[in-house]
User: Fold these one by one.
Assistant:
Number 1:
Amino acid sequence: MISEILNKQKTQSEKSLEALKKDFTTLRTGKVNIHILDHISVDYYGTQTPLNQVATVLASDASTISITPWEKPMLKIIESAIAAANIGVNPNNDGESVKLFFPPMTREQREENVKHAKAMGEKAKVSIRNNRKDANDSIKKLEKDKTISEDEAKKAYDEVQKITDSYVNKIDESVKNKEVELLKV
């Protein structure tokens, strides 16, 4: 029973770490990343559809993203959706595709993105701590029901804390690495 609780905590903590890494892809570094468009959806025949499911999205060079719709009528819709998303660049429609030209990032923009990365890291840590609370509550319930002894509960609490500490350290390391990447010119 305790091993199930610990495995569940590890699984949930791993998901939190993966979510953090996915969040990091939305931050712009010195080189453009097509994942900056992941949260943009377009109206595709009455259904909100992710941009990458109606067009080919490519980073043609370090500062340009090219979006080529699979259907010509989608050009205007894609252009409007990108403009509405306010990602810091204006879409350029050349009749075939929509191009996004990203200017070089300023020092202030880089520092702002570092703040966002740290906030994302804190959000992930809160999730890890919630996983710890859930695991500890499950152990308390087992102890209260006399399913496990006080000594077993103490060992389980210690193990839960070790798992929490290890994932908090992984998050700190990820945030630190992302900070270095963001500040690199």
Note: Strands lie at 41-44, 47-50, 55-61, 64-69, 91-93, 98-101.
Number 2:
Amino acid sequence: MQAFFILLGALIVLVLGLFIFSLFLPPVVKVERSLMIPAPAAKIFPLINVVRNWELWSPWKDLDPDIAITYGEKDSGAGAGYSWKSHNRNIGNGHMTITESRPEQYIATDTDFMRMGIAKGSFRLDPVSEGTLVSWSMTCNLGQHPLRKVMGLMMDKWVGRDFEKGLEGIKRLVVRN
């Protein structure tokens, strides 16, 4: 019986420690990756601005080839979007909408991950001497939930890899054509 109380006490200390640790973590997490693509922004922009083109480079399509995607009425620019449903728990269900589109410069998105909330995303296309520096970022407000804030510590590692794969996919498409 004494072992039970020692384990219970250790569990209480661990949970309390996790809660106190989470108080010092920021509620907002930002993930960003950039890649120089040897092409003008005019060649890259349609791959991001036209939502049907996301299937060509999206890192999540590889994780679940059976993902069900439903497109909205608008195909590109502000107001364009799509919904997805996946049985893969790492992808889940959600909806993405382009909220702002500045030709060959910038695209902003809202991505609703259902239970996880809405993430603000963006793509910046900056001209450089070798081509275009494409930056993909996402900002999530995790609120004050202790477990979400602790998971936020892993967000850069998890989502960052996906962003890198997506940017490489865009580069492959642009360089190939």
Note: The first helix runs from residue 2 to 23.
Number 3:
Amino acid sequence: MARSSVLARAEKVEPDPSHQCALAATARMVPESIEVLVRTPDGGELVLPGELVRILLASAGELARGHAVTVLASEAQLSPTEAAELLGLSRPFVARLLDAGDIPSTNLPGSSHRVVRLSDVLAFQQRRERRREGRRQIAEALEGTDLPY
């Protein structure tokens, strides 16, 4: 049975430039200090839970900056190709990362094909960004010294 693309099925929202001001104002709100009320078609009202309010505010911030927002569960399982696409890396390089255990993966039952949890891909990306930032800070610190290297 063919596996359909997780990324293709994900809900993706593109920013509308005409909403930028409202999105920016929404993004500045503090989740704990607001209540979001949804009016149902029958006139009823529903207060959204805090988790959903945090998602809405985080999404508003990204949309205000002109970024598209894709909604995926962190437990979603991606193919190595999808993981590579999210990380902006080549599929062969991601395959090497999987082989080395830098990103955990599991084989599909009865198959040699691997899947990767989105949360593991995002954790790898955060580690990579922290290392990059650390190297940048070290380089900046060394620029002001008279060390021979």
Note: Helices lie at 6-9, 20-27, 50-64, 80-87, 91-100, 118-143.
